[in-house]
Amino acid sequence: MEYRTAAIIGSQWGDEGKGKVIDYLASCADVVVRAQGGNNAGHTVVIGGKKYALHLIPSGALHPGAVNVIGNGVVVDPAGFFEEMETLESDGVDCSNLFVSDRAHLVFPWHRAIDELSEGRAGSGGIGTTRRGIGPCYTDKAARVGLRVCDMLDAAAFREKMSARLDAANEIIERIYGAEPLDKVSILDLYAGYAERMVPLIADTGAIVYDAVTAGKAVLFEGAQGTMLDLDLGTYPYVTSSHPGSGGFIIGAGIGPRMIGEIVGIVKAYTTRVGAGPMVTELTDATGDAIREAGHEYGTTTGRPRRCGWFDGVVVRYSARINGTTGLALMLLDVLSGFDELKLCRDYAHKGETLQGFPARLDVLGACTPLYDTLPGWKSDITRCRDFGALPEAARRYVEAVEEITGVPVKIVSVGPDREQTIIREEVF
Ligand code: GDP
Ligand code: IMO
Ligand code: MG
After folding, report:
1. Domain 5-101+201-262: CATH class, spelled out
2. Residue 341 is inside which H or E element, if any?
3. Would residue 43 show up in a list of annotated catalytic residues for this protein?
4. Whose CA is nearest to atom 2 of ligand 1?
5. Does the domain spanning 105-198 belong to CATH 1.10.300.10?
6. Which residue's CA is the nearest one to ligand 1's atom 10?
7. pLDDT tens digits for 270-311?
8. For a surface tag, which of 39, 208, 380, 399 has the fewest beta carbons within 10 Å of its beta carbon?
């Protein structure tokens, strides 16, 4: 059976515009599912000039008809979660159609504290995490000592389990980092309150997704972060602690691999990265600054300036291979308006040779130089274009160059942050 499903996957280092694409496609989705990451994500949706920032709540929330699911692979910080829900509700967004997996792991204040302390100690040698406690929470999950959302269903046992985990975390906080231990009573009370609020939302979300997919409903899987931040396949150790690639949806939503139909790679028309780690096409000059200013490239979650550079075809080709990408959405094309010429990286050179594939070794990656194709730019404003033919010829040639370098068709072109500023070349869903 052909399923009506699509996975929306960040195909660079995150912040590609996943929120916008999810929101756009969610108008015809029955269910929108997050499957990994946590509130390290920051997904922006702009509707009629009004901006919404989503971190844990799926970007389908802005469509009243869609059921929103936080799957088992997500790590849920109840503080961030309820705050986000309140903010959205005060903006008139109805968050009642939302379910949280009983198997999802919980982020606690000690995870945030340890993230903060370990990054603080590492200084400039750190990963540059979002300090949301994501890595420490996934560490506890892998060590099989984490607490899950279903633990909230038994108040007394939840309190006991939290107490034991807090004692263990305080040992690390005090002995390893020499920092002040966290206060037990206030945290246990706070989380007891969160548990009461969470109970009505807790569900076996894998079953919800399975039932929807097999009933022929339209289901969107919303990626967070990006493929190059994948724990296994990204630029380790400068990665996040989950699997933003297509494989992550299978485990993180609890579904079979054949249930994912279309795999849409979201890419910026250039490259950005926030946090440390190699980035071959990074521009540390005035051109990089010009891209940052034109694209308002400052983090949705942390406000940090993003590192900017030319489009990296090696990264997107590698992402497409890993994810099985069936089409690309090329975002923020309007940001490139006004440049005399534009560069796209076709290959990496390493010690005088053209490199094959994408290197695992960071010393090799760090020593690579980009081999660029140079294309003419365009000067006109493209933010009002609504079909491909309306774009200036140089912009069309740029899109076609992306397709040729990556080997993947560009099915969506985005020319502005607003829901309306979207060109559909081929339906993906
Ligand atoms: P996400 O994490 O992948 O959802 O992306 P972010 O929301 O963190 O960052 C993407 C930014 O680009 C947001 O500020 C969006 O509003 C904005 N954006 C998305 N598409 C476009 C576009 O085509 N043009 C412009 N100018 N901005 C866009
Ligand atoms: P969205 O979903 C961009 C980066 C951090 C850091 C690394 C590890 O908005 O695309 P973490 O806090 O996850 O342990 O940090 O990953 N990072 C992101 N970069 N977009 C994101 O999410 C990111 N989530 C994490 O900057 O380099
Ligand atoms: Mg983001």
Report:
1. alpha beta
2. strand 341-350
3. yes
4. 15
5. yes
6. 17
7. 999 999 999 999 999 999 999 999 999 998 778 899 999 999
8. 380
